Every structure is written in C-alpha cells, then in structure tokens.
Amino acid sequence: MSAAQTKPTACLALADGTIFMGQGFGATGRTVAELCFNTAMTGYQEIMTDPSYAGQIVTFTFPHIGNTGVTPEDDETGDPVAEGMVVKWQPTQSSNWRAAQELSDWLAARGRIAIGGVDTRRLTRAIRQQGAPHVALAHDPDGNFDIEALVAEARSFSGLEGLDLAKDVTCAQSYRWDEMRWAWPDGYPRQTAPKHKVVAVDFGAKRNILRCLASAGCDVTVLPATATYDDVMAHNPDGVFLSNGPGDPAATGEYAVPMIKSLLDKTELPVFGICLGHQMLALALGGKTVKMNHGHHGANHPVKEHDTGKVEITSMNHGFAVDAQSLPQGVVETHVSLFDGSNCGIKIEGRPVFSVQHHPEASPGPQDSFYLFERFAASMA
Fold this sequence. Notes:
The chain has eleven helices and 17 strands. It is of the alpha/beta class. The protein folds into two domains: 3-156, Carbamoyl-phosphate synthase small subunit, N-terminal domain (Glucose Oxidase, domain 1), CATH 3.50.30; 166-380, Class I glutamine amidotransferase (GATase) domain (Rossmann fold). Residues 1-188 are annotated as: CPSase. Keywords: Amino-acid biosynthesis, Arginine biosynthesis, ATP-binding, Glutamine amidotransferase, Ligase, Nucleotide-binding, Pyrimidine biosynthesis.
C-alpha cells in the first residue's frame, strides 16, 4: 500500500493532548463535543438519531458498524443528533435487504463526521478510567491538521453540565402520533382504536418510544419541552408521559420542573417518565441529579426491579443519574443498575406516578422492559 493510501484523513484530539489518527468518512470539517462509548452490537442508526446524544460523539465498541447500511424506517428523529462517530473498522459495502443507503453517504448528506481505524478498545478504557473527555474531531481528505488548535478547541469546550439541550431537539409545535411498533410484513401499522389520551412532553423523544405508547393503546399528543401545566391540561389527558432527552437535567428543570410539580399537586393523573423524563420527575419530587464519570450507553445493561426481583437486560443512554440518597420520604427506588448500583427507577407510594432511567422501547436493544408501557396504560384504565 502506498504512503498516499495510508495517510490519515481524520484526527480525534482529546483535551488531555492524546491524539488518535484514522481514516475519515461521512462529512468533512470539524466538530467539538463530549466523547462517550456505546457497547450495543446493533442499532447504530438508532443511536446516531437518538436526541439524547446531542452534544456527544459516540465511540462504538462493536467493530462492524455500517455493515447493514441505513434505512429511513430506523431513524429515531429526522436527522442524526450525535455530533459524530468513532469506529474501529471503516464500513464495508452494506449487505441487508432493508438497506436504502450506505452509512458513509448518509452521514455526509447530514453533516456528520466519522473516523475509522481507531483503537476503540484503548479509547474506551481511557474513557472508563478518566471520565468522558472533551474532544475535537476533524476530517480532511488531504490530511492537513493543526493538532495544537484541535487540542485547544477540545479544552475550550464547555461540557454538558449546565447545558439545557432539550430546547434544541424538542418539537417546534404540538402534533398527534398514531404510528405503532414495526410488525412483519407491513411495517408500521396505525392505532385506530385508542383507549387513553396521553400528552407526551418532548424533551428529545425517540419515535419508537411514541410507537410503544400507541401500541399500548394510547392516543398520543406530543407537546414541546417548554409546555406549561395549562398547555398540558388543555388536552384533557388521561395520563402524561415525560420523554427522554439530552443535556443537564437541572438546566432543563428550570422550566420543566414547575410544570411537573403542578401536575402532581393539582391532579391525580398517571405520570410515566423515561431517561431525562425520569430525572425531571425526580427533581420535581425534591431529588437531585449528578453527572456520572462516563455514563451508561449500551443495549446490554442489567437492571433489577426491587418489587419482583426480576433482572431485565435494558438499553441505556445517559450521562447524568438520579441520586437515590436524595429522594424524599414517600418516593421509592424501584429499579437499580447491577453494573454500578446507580438508580434506574422511582415511584410515588400509593400513586400511579413512576419513571425509569433506561429506554424500554428496544430501539436498539432487548424488549424485556416493554411491560412498563402496559403498566402505564393499565394505570389509566
């Protein structure tokens, strides 16, 4: 192989000065973000389009990324939200009957940078040991990089603490949702006989979470993250859903927590939260959230439900967690991570108000936790 073929065309610079060189694909240019790693073996497209990844670049520990191409059916939102991706091997030509486009072309068309040929094992170990670093990622087909400038950009990144990113990924206006979970052979059917009116507050909602609500019998109206108590109640809901989303929960809580407190104080409505929605509920109840060392990102996280003793394999994506020690009397921890003991669920004793940290909609990931949508529907019945 000639020197021209081996010349690096992408550079990942960490704030501590560590440099990873590789081959770029997707869009050209540069971006600055927090770096995390995801251990899922499938679902790279769902991960890249998960709004919870705003402000982050994702390192994939599984090497075969891009091999099945991409399809519009698997987008969790309109465009990729993650800032970029880091992989061990560059994508080969896709091989899947559902593939509509190559991953590299899809990333390029949507302005997302990727780097391949990186020792992702070494990078992941560094993230685990030192915490999620701030990084700059650059792709230049000519291989010209100002390393010092890239490191300086990484060091100047403000980080995710204190950032309200929900307002950047939420919907601009309210809309109805009736699409249900994918089913062979017709794809996504429509909910034509809903039993429960649900308002879903969109902090960065994944489409498959909304599909799961529809599949559980819900007529779903999605409202922006900034929706007030009056906005929610104007729809006369049977229950309220608080979605997943990115950023620092304390920052988003500045406007979301007062709305949730009013819901809890003035109504007896069932409330169900996932991910950022779980953290919003905890804050509204008087709990606190903390930034994690490197977060939980993957589709293989074991979570135990205290009431049943059942262990579920779950999909997770969060860099902040609820501090279980801060929960007030009457608020009970329901689920816990078996990786590190961190909080993964809460409920109010004697009321149909509950939330979980993990993503039970299986996109990507296992379906062990789908019962939570059915539990929410049953609480409205």
